[in-house]
Amino acid sequence: MNATASTSPSTSVSVIGLGNLGQALAGAFLAAGHPTTVWNRSAAKADALVARGAVRAATAAEAVAASDLVVVAVLDQDTARTVLESAAAALPGRTVVNLTTSTPEPARALADWATGHGADYLMGAVYAVPQTIGTDDAFILYSGSAGAHERYRAELNLLGGDTFVGSDPGLAAVHDVAILSGMYGLFSGFFQAVALGRSERIKAVDLTGHLNRWLQGVLAVLPEFAAEIDAESYETEASSLDMNATGLRNILTATESQGLSTELLAPLQRLLDDQVTKGHARHSLSRAVESLKPAVR
């Protein structure tokens, strides 16, 4: 991403945490001409950034005090909390953007603590590998203070495409858990496919070429499923639950006949069978999501 006309290079930024992500974040701000202060528990990690013009802070508190915009990218939320607690006296009037991986409740708890100590607060979920920070391949979802997001949107846009998903600080983490769940579900299907192929000496590389081609078309149905789920309207004349339940059962039978475990796909079979048993055999495959609803208390 490039700096926009509204970006002010005079905006000072502090980056706390200089792992691979923190290094990339600080580098993006430096490249755009922002005065950048950096801090890491292992001070030597700042050397390359200092050589590029960054200021090395001696403490986290010094880093927070140095800038109006403070970006945190550390190991986990407990570490983020510990670091920010050590700088509590410097927080009033600062905007903290926490890009540390989190789950929803810890994200909300730290937001409450930070705002209680006078900071404006944004939580962010990063979708990028460090080397893509600052490019069109990176994007970040933010939640928390709408005012902070608007005020520093140009600076945040230097890191990658940005989207504000709501004022609840936990929403970025909810999105993150949901999106990564989809990713790991894809991986589980891939591992099952490769294992089945290998059982007949089909190379994973060869199978993956065909799988990628098929999945490009399959992905196009997800927006249709999403619309059905949001509307809770599952009428269909196409990919019905009973058709897919039968198809998946055949796959599991074939998998077992190859001497392979079915533990990755068997849970999905249970969801499909549950909906068929409840009388929804002719409804869309997307209705399987209804079996994941929490029990009514």
UniProtKB/TrEMBL annotation:
Record keyword Hydrolase present: no
The name this protein goes by in its record: NAD(P)-dependent oxidoreductase
Keywords, sorted A to Z: Oxidoreductase
Pfam families per UniProt: NAD_binding_2, RedAm-like_C
A cellular component term, taken from the record's GO annotations: chromatin
Similarity comment: family membership: Belongs to the HIBADH-related family.
Domain 6-phosphogluconate dehydrogenase NADP-binding, residue spans: 13-161
Alphabetized PANTHER family for the sequence: CYTOKINE-LIKE NUCLEAR FACTOR N-PAC, OXIDOREDUCTASE GLYR1-RELATED
Record-annotated NADPH-dependent reductive aminase-like C-terminal domain positions: 168-293
GO molecular function: DNA binding; NADP binding; nucleosome binding; oxidoreductase activity
Domain of life according to the entry: Bacteria
SUPFAM superfamilies: NAD(P)-binding Rossmann-fold domains (SSF51735)
GO biological process: transcription elongation-coupled chromatin remodeling
Gene3D superfamilies: N-(1-d-carboxylethyl)-l-norvaline Dehydrogenase, domain 2, NAD(P)-binding Rossmann-like Domain
Tagged with keyword Oxidoreductase: yes
